[in-house]
Specification:
Layout: H1 25-37, E1 46-48, H2 51-54, E2 68-70, H3 71-81, H4 84-95, H5 98-112, H6 134-147, E3 159-161, E4 166-168, H7 172-177, E5 181-189, E6 193-202, E7 205-214, H8 217-234, E8 259-266, E9 272-279, H9 297-317, H10 320-323, H11 336-346, H12 363-371, E10 413-420, H13 423-436, H14 438-441, E11 445-451, E12 454-462, H15 464-476, E13 482-484
Antiparallel strand pairs: 1-2, 3-4, 5-6, 6-7, 8-9, 10-12, 10-13, 11-12
Helix pairs in contact: 1-4, 3-4, 4-5, 9-11, 9-12
Length: 487
């Protein structure tokens, strides 16, 4: 198959239903990437290994029942070593049971156009009715390549750290022997023989080949090389890239319940029944906060006048181009009055660390600040300290400081929303993200960290639960995000 267009260049018995063996793990990993993308789970989620997963036969990582291990290591072990115990654990972590995961695999396969494939488990061990075709597996390989390019490098790694130990790639001989080869997946059982979905790129051309039923590793690799050579010979050099359409998402978002997704499934009798899956959707509306009792609109107006010019100048500088690729779409227009009003409401929530000597501003002083005359020039805001953000009061003669972040009480976690070429770009992204996701990031510390490769945009001073929730909500909005643990 020409990967760029999906055109089949040569086939022989390509629609014959056969045992796919560990080629199955391509679908298991595809769904894992999908689940991470939509916030169902993260690569840092600690997965508890079940007796069922630990009991899977080799090839395996050697997981023990009750053991906890990060999802990222299970993904590496399944992709590189083709570990059956890791694949089963991935399915159970995402859907609760291997049977439920197999049903999701079949829904996804149909959405991808794999019309002659039926999955029964997450690892590919021989089971009655667990069948696929060479053509369907070529489709699967093409979607792995183009739908999740950020993870595709897994399949070309000769070795990888799987948490428990370093593991070697089952496809390392072919990767080393064939020029341009960079994946994808091997498979072997007695019933299936030696299978391989291979992909190679040379110049502008990329070819995917599939071999089922090889008699040995050497014979399978030789046939794969022959098919790839034929593909490069027949494929045109200049072919427009037509990426395959991503299937509709049919999983859970963040484990919540806000959005309905319906799917129709067919059983072996051909009868069809409709199942409804409930999943969370991104927040679509943010309610305007109410002013505290005793504070009138006339109290708020002077503060709005004082900060409106400064906020407007900052917001106008936040362009969509500056936040790419961390933020994929521009935020909705922001009401300046609402932002300023929210600042008044939040002013009394200090959260000072226990050992701080800074005197907090009480709620009555927040009202007094709101009624003070508007400054004639924009206030100068100092660089925040790591443990607290200082804000000068409206009375120049008697300044008081309000802390906005506490790192006590378990607030030692943070999130990263991207790395940028300049401090200015990182600060703009932090401001825009904070305004986009006020529900979980309110009270956090915006921090830019200078790294050798650029400037990291971080929110610090969160609990682990809040950081996880914030990341899942941002990822649901297609914003790059990962958690930062206590240093």
């Amino acid at each position: 198959m020409d990967a760029r267009s999906g055109e089949v260049l040569f086939s022989e018995n390509a629609e014959t239903r056969l045992h796919p063996a560990s080629l199955t793990k391509m679908m298991t990993l595809y769904i894992a990437f999908e689940a991470v993308e939509h916030g169902e789970i993260t690569m840092d989620t600690m997965v508890t290994i079940s007796k069922n997963a630990a009991a899977e036969p080799p090839s395996k990582l050697g997981l023990r029942s009750g053991q906890k291990i990060a999802l990222r290591y299970l993904v590496r072990a399944a992709a590189v070593k083709s570990a059956n115990d890791a694949a089963t654990a991935i399915g159970e972590a995402i859907e609760g049971s291997e049977a439920a995961f197999a049903r999701r695999m079949n829904r996804t396969a149909k959405a991808l156009g794999m019309t002659r494939t039926t999955f029964k488990n997450a690892n590919g061990l021989t089971t009655d009715g667990h069948l696929s075709t060479a053509h369907d597996m070529a489709i699967m390989g093409r979607h792995i390549l183009y739908d999740y390019p950020g993870y595709y490098n897994l399949f070309s790694r000769r070795t990888t750290d799987a948490g428990m130990r370093e593991v070697a790639n089952t496809n390392r001989r072919f990767l080393a022997a064939y020029k341009g080869a960079d994946g994808i997946k091997t498979g072997y059982t007695r019933a299936a023989g030696f299978n391989l979905v291979a992909s190679a790129e040379r110049g502008r051309e990329r070819i995917i080949s599939v071999v089922f039923g090889g008699t040995s590793t050497a014979a399978r690799n030789a046939k794969s090389a022959e098919l790839l050579d034929l593909g490069f010979k027949r494929a045109a050099t200049n072919v427009a890239l037509r990426r395959p359409a991503k299937p509709p998402y049919m999983g859970r978002v963040g484990g919540g319940a806000d959005m309905l997704v319906a799917s129709a499934e067919a059983d072996d009798s051909g009868l069809r029944g409709k199942s409804i899956r409930v999943a969370a959707a991104a927040v679509s509306k943010s309610l305007r906060p109410q002013i505290r009792p005793g504070v009138t609109s006339s109290d708020v107006a002077p503060l709005v006048a004082g900060v409106e010019d400064d906020i407007t100048s900052v917001l106008e500088s936040v362009q969509v181009a500056a936040v790419a690729p961390a933020v994929s779409e521009a935020p909705k227009p922001i009401d300046i009055a609402k932002v300023a009003e929210t600042m008044v409401v939040a002013e009394g929530d200090t959260g000072i660390a226990p050992d701080s000597s800074i005197k907090p501003v009480r709620r009555p002083q927040a009202v007094a600040l709101a009624s003070a005359p508007a400054p004639t020039t924009a206030p100068v805001v100092a660089e925040p300290e790591p443990a607290a953000v200082a804000v000068a009061s409206a009375e120049p003669a008697a300044q008081e400081v309000v802390t906005r972040v506490s790192t006590s009480g378990g607030r030692h976690w943070g999130i990263n929303v991207g790395r940028y070429p300049s401090r200015y770009a990182a600060e703009k992204v932090l401001l825009q993200t904070a305004l986009m996701e006020t529900a979980t990031l309110d009270g956090s510390l915006r921090k830019v960290v200078d790294r050798s490769g650029g400037f990291d945009a971080n929110f610090m001073g969160l609990t682990r639960e809040t950081a996880d929730l914030a990341c899942r909500r941002l990822q649901a909005r297609q914003v790059t995000c990962f958690m930062i643990g206590p240093s």
